[in-house]
């Protein structure tokens, strides 16, 4: 995946790389790794993942940006073996009563891993302004989650029943309840992470 690729299926080299990330994800077989080279990719709709798939920013989050353009959740995963790594995910929008009502930036419906990502300026009308997990094992590791908003629960993150937050910064997020982190069920599993300057209107600023 590269802005300067040749866009020749099956996108198996840098010269033939897809220029449209939606096409690259939609055409990737189960078990594939979609390598995303540096650039800003403005999405026209959600990246929908339905099989085992990794999306990896080759040059890291500071150089590789997915921009939801305030249209929809940036990444919408329906598979537990999903890895999102090394991306900045910004300007996503999750809308209530849609499949992406949890997670303005990333919605992991069945679990998965989000690692070494920056999640910024996303919003959700229900829960998980930055990232939302629903069911299954989920892990957020080495992420920066800042300046996200949820109208109801978890401005930065909503963790599912079996999800963990590790080695991450969650700051300057806002929600009605759980400004930084909201747990959708059990006591949240948070390890070696900093929650700071998050705000909630009703309960649970952190």
How would you describe the overall organization of this protein?
With 206 residues, the chain is mainly β. Helix content is 3%, strand content 44%. It is built from 1 helix and 25 strands. It has one helix spanning 21-26; strands at residues 32-36, 39-42, 47-49, 53-57, 64-67, 75-77, 82-85, 88-90, 93-94, 106-108, 112-115, 118-120, 123-124, 131-133, 137-141, 144-146, 149-153, 157-159, 162-166, 169-171, 174-177, 181-183, 189-191, 194-196, 199-203. The strands form 4 sheets. It has a 7-stranded parallel β-sheet. The N and C termini lie far apart (37 Å). The mean pLDDT is 89.
Compact overview of the structure:
This protein has 206 residues and is mainly beta. It is built from 1 helix and 25 strands.
Amount of beta strand:
35-45%
Question: What string, H for helix and E for strand, traces the elements in order?
Answer: HEEEEEEEEEEEEEEEEEEEEEEEEE
Q: What is the count of β-strands?
A: 25
Averaged pLDDT? 89
Question: Which helices and strands appear, and what pairs or packs with what?
Answer:
Layout: H1 21-26, E1 32-36, E2 39-42, E3 47-49, E4 53-57, E5 64-67, E6 75-77, E7 82-85, E8 88-90, E9 93-94, E10 106-108, E11 112-115, E12 118-120, E13 123-124, E14 131-133, E15 137-141, E16 144-146, E17 149-153, E18 157-159, E19 162-166, E20 169-171, E21 174-177, E22 181-183, E23 189-191, E24 194-196, E25 199-203
Parallel strand pairs: 1-4, 2-5, 3-6, 4-7, 5-8, 6-10, 7-11, 8-12, 9-13, 10-14, 11-15, 12-16, 13-17, 14-18, 15-19, 16-20, 17-21, 18-22, 19-23, 20-24, 21-25
What labels would you give this structure?
7-stranded parallel beta sheet, 206 residues, single chain, mainly beta
């Amino acid at each position: 995946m590269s802005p300067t690729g040749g866009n020749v299926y099956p996108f198996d080299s840098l010269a033939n790389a897809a220029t449209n990330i939606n096409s690259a994800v939609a055409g990737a077989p189960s078990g594939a790794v979609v390598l995303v080279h540096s650039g800003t990719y403005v999405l026209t709709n959600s990246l929908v993942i339905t099989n085992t798939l990794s999306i990896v920013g080759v040059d890291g989050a500071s150089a590789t940006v997915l921009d939801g353009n305030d249209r929809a959740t940036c990444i919408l995963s329906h598979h537990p073996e999903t890895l999102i790594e090394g991306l900045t995910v910004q300007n996503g929008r999750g809308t209530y009563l849609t499949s992406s009502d949890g997670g303005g930036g990333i919605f992991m419906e069945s679990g998965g891993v989000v690692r070494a990502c920056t999640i910024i300026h996303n919003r959700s009308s229900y829960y998980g302004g930055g990232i939302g997990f629903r069911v299954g094992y989920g892990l957020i590791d080495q992420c920066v989650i800042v300046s996200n908003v949820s109208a109801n629960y978890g401005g930065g993150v909503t963790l599912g029943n079996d999800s963990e937050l590790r080695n991450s910064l969650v700051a300057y997020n806002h929600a009605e309840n759980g400004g930084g982190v909201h747990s959708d069920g059990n006591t949240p599993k948070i390890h070696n992470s900093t929650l700071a300057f998050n705000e909630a209107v009703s309960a649970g600023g952190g």
